[in-house]
Structures are given as C-alpha cells and as structure tokens.
Design a protein that fits this description.
Length: 276
C-alpha cells in the first residue's frame, strides 16, 4: 500500500500514463480491502465476536461474515504476494531467501539461527494443527514446494508467506512477527504498540520456536511453574531478571524482548493507576 502511494506521489507521478495511475489506484483499493481483512482477522484472534466486528464496521453480522469469514482473509493476503515478491529486498518486505541447510541448522548467533527458529515455530504450529502440506497450499495459494521448504527449514519466508502459513495453521500471525524480524536481521522491536499483548505474542512465538515445551520443563529453579505458565500465556509480566532467565531456557535471545517487556510493564503500571 505504501509502495503504491509512494509511486503516486513521486515528483514524476504527474507524467505517469493514465493507465498506470488507474492501475495503482485500483491496487490501493485492493490493498485497503486486504488491510481491513487482516485487521478483522487479528480482532477475531483476540476474542472479538462477529457481532462486535459487524458493529465496528457498520454492517450486519451476516455481511461481516460474508466479507471476512472463512478463508477470505488468506485469499486476500495471497493476492498481494506477487507485489511483495517483485520488490527489491528491504527490511519491511524482503523477498524469500534460501539459506543452506548447514547454515539454518548451525549453532550460534545471528540470522541463520534466527531463521531456524522461525521455521521451527512454523513447523511446530503446523504439527499442532494437523493440517497437511496440500491443504496449506490450497488455502494459501503457495506452492507445495514452498510450504515444504519452509517447514523443513530450507527456506526463510517473506512476511506475506509467514502470515499465510501461520493463518492456515490456525495461529495468530503477530505471534510470529518478532521471530520473522529477527530472522531477517532487523533491529529489536523497540517501536511497538506499547501494550502488554505484544510481549505475550512474542513469548508465544518463542515457545513455538522451542517446540512448544511444557512451561514446567523450562521453568528456572527460582520461579514457580504456575508463574512460568502464566507468563508464557501472556497473563503475567515477570521482573526482567526472571523473564530473561526463562527466555534463555527457551533458547531465545533476551535482548529481543527487553523493549517489549518495558512496554508491558509501562502498560501494567498505567492499569494499576487507573484502578486506584
């Protein structure tokens, strides 16, 4: 959406042929429809009922379901993949990149390990869902070879592909966002929405990347297993030393979660002040 808007507002935009301008504006309308669908999908993942979605959109519940229900979100996002894939590599929308198996599975720090974590998280989500590669391919529009390469750890997906694969397995794409950013070598997420939910989503992603272990098996000695479970479910914000220790036991890089933790603690303090 931002790419098309930029093309329409460049100094040379007034020299574009009418056909090109109309194509760009048509694409913007499609992108806007896709953005609305993704927003509704995220709201549904966070517990919104169809009646609430319909009220927010000024539609009847039946109309809201017809517009955004079922596999329609996946189809809309899938339709946008060709645009992303055609763009040159950059931090927000990089194209797919294949990592050699020896690099993706190597131990140590850096992008290869982060890429392995993203692929492992997607594979864990896929295994928990029980859906087949063919079904994922059919619902996302991605070739079976791409689905297999990502889930086997041979290909690092772009964000649209990550979104589609997560959505097809019944997960929340935002749980994968920090893992995807890390896999593509982006800076740690220090400009998030400043809410505790972001930390909870990132922790779920880290747990998926670790193979979704039982919280009791990764609980530090000085932490109650019930607190570890509540933390990994996004219901509790631990002190930073305890959270950092828990993240290390999950095999995650604590530095990638520090700003999310700061935002979550700030949101927690705001809520407490409001309750006084």
């Amino acid at each position: 959406m931002s790419v098309r808007a930029w093309q329409l507002h460049t100094p040379a935009a007034d020299q574009l042929p009418l056909e090109a301008v109309l194509e760009l504006t048509a694409g913007l309308r499609e992108d806007a429809d896709c953005l609305a669908a993704v927003a509704v999908d995220a709201a549904r993942h966070h517990g919104w009922a169809w009646g609430e979605v319909a009220s927010a959109a000024g539609l009847s519940e039946a109309s809201a379901r017809a517009r955004w229900g079922g596999v329609r979100v996946s189809r809309l996002v899938s339709a946008r993949v060709p645009l992303y894939s055609a763009l040159p590599a950059h931090r927000e929308l990089p194209p797919s990149a294949v990592y050699p198996e020896t690099d993706v599975q190597a131990e140590g720090k850096g992008a290869p390990v982060a890429a392995r974590e993203l692929c492992t998280a997607l594979r864990t989500l896929y295994e928990r869902s029980g859906v087949s590669h063919r079904r994922v391919s059919d619902s996302t529009g991605l070739p079976v070879a791409v689905v297999t390469s990502v889930l086997d750890g041979h290909m690092v997906p772009s964000w649209p592909e990550t979104y589609l694969l997560t959505h097809a397995a019944g997960g929340d794409p935002q749980d994968m966002r920090p893992l995807w950013q890390h896999a593509w070598g982006m800076p740690s997420p220090n400009e998030m929405r400043n809410s505790g939910g972001d930390l909870g989503a990132a922790l779920l992603g880290a747990r998926l990347a670790a193979g979704f272990p039982d919280p009791a098996t990764v609980c530090p000695p000085n932490l109650d297993p019930a607190e570890a479970r509540m933390t990994l479910q996004g219901e509790l914000v631990l002190d930073w030393p305890a959270l950092s220790d828990l993240l290390v036991r999950l095999g995650a890089d604590p530095s990638w979660f520090e700003q999310l933790w700061v935002a979550a603690r700030s949101a927690q303090r705001t809520i407490r002040k409001g309750e006084r």
